[in-house]
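Lab meeting, item 3. Inverse folding demo.
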């Protein structure tokens, strides 16, 4: 390795270290500030004070998550969740489902996802759909329930749900036969949002479309775009 390249990699490594250290220090200082707020009686009275504390705890969780400290992130999401912070409850559910920062426990994840789904959180809909599809966390295995949840999330613009729903339509689900025209439209919408797996799967579907199915595509695409627009 040349001296110039060695210096370049050394500088790059130093920049990465400083960026990581900056995130960690921000989290440490923010944690101290929040702890002081709580010790002194909170950041305000009533619901507004609770919302402020929840938001601060959530921000700390995000900072620790970015630094790679998933255990601390989970801890702060738990604090925010005690105040009913929806996104924190969702992140706790994902942590349990994925075993990130806490021992994997699908039975803890499911009720948390179910709670957040009530708020029309599309990420929770999609995650709970996957749990139903696989029959995880004590849920009965149900492609029909998974399809319902993926569809609800997709109609609200969730591109990962579009991909998952399209995937279901490629192979069919339960008693439902494959719907290649619908699958193509959903995978195309997901691919346009940058989901690489959707693009490769869409190409495979494209090769299987009949003439009649190709004639359906434009109408279905318009229907989906109108549905997403209506749910914004």
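The presenter then showed the designed sequence:
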């Amino acid at each position: 390795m040349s001296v110039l390249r060695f210096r370049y990699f050394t500088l790059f490594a130093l920049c990465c270290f400083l960026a990581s250290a900056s995130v960690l220090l921000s989290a440490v200082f923010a944690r101290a500030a929040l702890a002081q707020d709580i010790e002194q009686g909170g950041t305000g009275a009533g619901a507004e004070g609770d919302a402020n504390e929840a938001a601060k705890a959530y921000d700390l969780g995000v900072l620790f998550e970015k630094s790679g400290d998933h255990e601390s992130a989970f801890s702060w999401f738990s604090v925010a969740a005690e105040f009913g912070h929806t996104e924190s409850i969702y992140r706790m559910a994902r942590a349990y489902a994925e075993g990130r920062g806490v021992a994997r426990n699908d039975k803890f994840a499911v009720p948390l996802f179910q709670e957040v789904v009530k708020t029309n959180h599309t990420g929770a809909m999609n995650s709970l759909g996957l749990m139903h599809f696989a029959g995880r966390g004590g849920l009965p295995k149900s492609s029909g329930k998974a399809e319902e949840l993926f569809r609800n999330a997709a109609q609200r613009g969730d591109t990962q749900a579009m991909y998952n729903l399209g995937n279901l339509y490629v192979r069919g689900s339960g008693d439902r036969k494959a719907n290649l025209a619908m699958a193509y439209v959903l995978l195309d919408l997901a691919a346009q949002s940058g989901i690489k797996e959707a693009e490769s799967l869409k190409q495979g579907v494209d090769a299987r479309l009949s003439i009649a199915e190709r004639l359906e595509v434009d109408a279905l695409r318009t229907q989906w775009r109108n549905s997403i627009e209506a749910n914004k």
